[in-house]
Amino acid sequence: MLLKTRLTKKELGELIFEAIVTMGIMYFIYMGLVLIFNRVVQSPPDFLLNWNTLWELILFFDIALLRYRRFILITATIFAMLFTWWRLFRRYKQMQLRHVLDELHYVASGNFEHRIKANLSGNMNDVVHSINTLVESTVMAMEEERKIEQSKDELITNVSHDIRTPLTSIIGYLGLIEEGQYSSKEDLERYIHIAYTKSLQMKVLVDDLFEYTKVRQTSTPLTVKTVSLGNLLEQIAAEFELESTRKEMNIEVEMKTTPLMIEFDVDKMARVFNNLISNALKYGKDGNLIRIVAEKVGSEAIISVINNGKKIPQESLDELFNRFYRVEASRSQQTGGTGLGLAIAQSIISLHGGYIYAESNDQETKFVMHLPLKQTNT
């Protein structure tokens, strides 16, 4: 219910009582002034008789009062009504303010889902709107803080889980070596090799985690340079030639705009391209081609990393850029991935003022990046 119509019976009674009292006071003031004026005319003090001008003015008003008594009475009544309305309006505004304060206290007591619904005018309406806006901003900030805390808890849980598995293996095999529970040199070398491999997995996770937390900070500095995007992509593709040949996949770079000059942090963006190409090589099952397509559209560069491998389910596309997410749980064991690569890529692109998204169908899977050609905040 709107505040404009939410006056209680008690408050309505207060307004009626206020009106009666005000009208009564105005009536007594009017009658008192009339009586005093008549008394002065009938028994004037000596100083008025000696002050001819003032005495003549009083006599003039006395004659006017007798002649226009009805007009003066109507005028006084209208004035009394206007004055009464003004006092009632002020009291009504005070009651509305009291209602707003009561609702504000209700919200402040922890009922942040409540909003003050009011049909007011003037500054009061602005105040109510500002209060509702403040409450909404506070709720959003609290929700964001809750999500951050939950995100931190999930991060700790996921990191602990991903570190515990290789760490358990390392401790187990080193324990066998420490206790001499091996029958040959080959067994010893195998145990050492497994412990070393698991240690490398832990190092990759720690490095990725460090990189992820670093690029998530909006204050992370960027070392911006102007580079030829085509040359950089060709260089990165060449670095994967051996791995792509081993997996019988080809990597092609297609520049629709030549030359395409762009400003970004070369090292960080190279990490993005490396992550995307590595993912295409690891997870592009049944595919044989990776295409990197780049073009200039307006003031931005659009870069797509496309593979013709197995389709990614739609429900997974929305989760791809969440940290530690993997489309298949078994991928962690098969590839040694940390699940942080795409989250790192997204954060780096955001630092550059761009964005990334993924599309997938039966023919191809595409990761599309939009990057500004020039960096405004460096």
UniProtKB/TrEMBL annotation:
Instruction: Identify the InterPro entries for this entry.
Output: HATPase_C_sf, HATPase_dom, His_kinase_dom, HisK_dim/P_dom, HisK_dim/P_sf, HssS/ArlS-like, Sig_transdc_His_kin-like_C
Where does the Histidine kinase domain lie? 158-375
**Transmembrane intervals:** 15-36, 71-89
The catalytic activity of this protein is classed by the Enzyme Commission as: 2.7.13.3
GO CC: one term?
plasma membrane
Q: Where in the cell is it found?
A: Cell membrane
**Membrane topology, from the record:** Multi-pass membrane protein
Q: Which domain of life is it from?
A: Bacteria
What catalytic activity is recorded? ATP + protein L-histidine = ADP + protein N-phospho-L-histidine
Keyword Amino-acid biosynthesis belongs to the record: no
Keywords in alphabetical order, please: ATP-binding, Cell membrane, Kinase, Membrane, Nucleotide-binding, Phosphoprotein, Transferase, Transmembrane, Transmembrane helix, Two-component regulatory system
Q: Name one GO molecular function term.
A: ATP binding
- PANTHER family documented for this protein: SENSOR HISTIDINE KINASE CPXA (PTHR45528)
Designated name of the protein: histidine kinase
This chain's source organism reads Jeotgalibaca ciconiae
- Recall the taxonomic lineage recorded for the source organism: Bacteria, Bacillati, Bacillota, Bacilli, Lactobacillales
